[in-house]
Amino acid sequence: MEQAETIKFLSSGRAFAADDPVEVIETHGAYVFLCGDTALKLKRAVKYDYMDLSTVALRKSLIARELELNQPAAPEIYRDMLPVTQSDTGVALNGDGPVVDWVLRMWRFPAENEFERIADRGALDDRLATAVGEAIADYHATAPVRRHPGRILIADILAELGRVFAGFPGAAGTARAAEWGKAAAARLATNGPLLDSRARDGHVRRAHGDLHLRNLVVIEGRPVLYDALEFDETLGTCDVFYDIAFLVMDLCHRNLRRQGCRVLDAWLRAARGNEDAGLATLPLFLSVRAAIRAMVLLQTDRARGQSGKSGEDVAAYLELACAALQPKAPRLIAVGGYSGSGKSVLARALASTLGALPGAALLSSDLERKAGLPAGTRLDPSAYAADRRDDVYRDLFARAATMLAAGHSVVLDATFVDPQLRAAAQNLAVRANLPFHGLWLAAPEHLLEGRLRSRQGDASDADIDVLKRQLTAWRGEMTWLHIDASGDPRSVLEQVKATVAVDMALDPSWV
Known about the structure:
Blueprint: H1 3-10, E1 23-26, E2 30-35, E3 38-43, H2 56-70, E4 78-87, E5 90-93, E6 99-107, H3 115-120, H4 126-142, H5 150-166, H6 177-200, E7 204-206, E8 216-219, E9 222-225, H7 233-236, E10 237-239, H8 240-253, H9 257-270, H10 282-303, H11 311-324, E11 332-337, H12 343-351, E12 361-364, H13 365-369, H14 386-405, E13 410-413, H15 419-432, E14 436-442, H16 445-453, H17 464-472, E15 481-484, H18 489-497
Parallel strand pairs: 11-13, 11-14, 12-13, 14-15
Antiparallel strand pairs: 1-2, 2-3, 3-6, 4-5, 4-6, 7-10, 8-9
């Protein structure tokens, strides 16, 4: 039988043994039926170039794989799979008669907890974006390593994209497809050796594969990844940087670069520097992810008999794909000042306006000191001893050097009271022959004290005693640009914008 009867049955309360109305969500590959606390997912009987769901056997296999992939990471969502049966009395779940289809049974979660909804209502703040990056890092840490050549994985995707785009000559939104294909191929030639070395070093894993905002949800206060790509093991096997690039691209597409920076910073920090060199691959990975989005829209519209419907979105994704490949010379900015001067606020705001998409990496001495711990954890005073401080700055500078060598801009956030540390920061840029800006934020002591007293949930443990020690420490000659930080954050931003050219628009609402 066709799926019409199954869809009709699942759209009714009979499938849920309830009188409540059933909500139906359609995607290009599935129907999801929602009623009460239960969700039933039915694979569409469709066949695309990249996904074949045309038979019951194929749909059963992919539902089983989806359950296998997702249940370990999201047991709060994934329950089991059930057969749809057909008998003389009609269609039923797990009933008598031959099996005509299969459904994945899940626990339903509140729609308002979906990350896409959270982003749409402007509630994806720094705290939540950081938690997402950490959750993805945890996911990748346990993902099985796969021994596949990194270059070939991306080359095959580029070949498929080129073939598909060629099948839509003159289609709405595809004007830059050929231009993008040439630029992406050139970038792959440059990144090829790095992709292969990353594969040899274990960075290619059986990852999520479909990591965008719609596949993230908040459950019991924490981000949960779900709906990992199950229909193609080759597509689900990728460099972990390519995996997280999908989410970063999605955020950039929605003009949420700051959130993209926070996600990426947290993920990189959780990796303890082991992924920093991979930043060289990010422009290509972001670009390919955007192009795939354009391809899927084209194919879905055609399959539904609505060719051209998504032309504007296709064009936007291809514009983003091209923009991601535009070269941006890296640079280093260091933001220093006494505790309470607002340096961390400025550093966070600046990062998403500098360099290639989504923006510069933010390296904070406070966050590096607490790597692996919640930002609000209070450390023992011994963590701030001179030898430990030297370790933190050494790690900070080493990570910055790796990122700059990968072609990625960096913003350093630390007190930089010690003139030797300021010189060391500047020397990073000098050795790499890159532009450097040192910014020193200054404000009256009473303002600094007031700000410290009002802090809540900050990564810094600095209190009034710490500030007093900073103020009496030898600062040496200050050659960095003096920024009056006595006003509100927006006034500080305006001063910086007048001196430091930013690559992307800076939104004052971010501070």
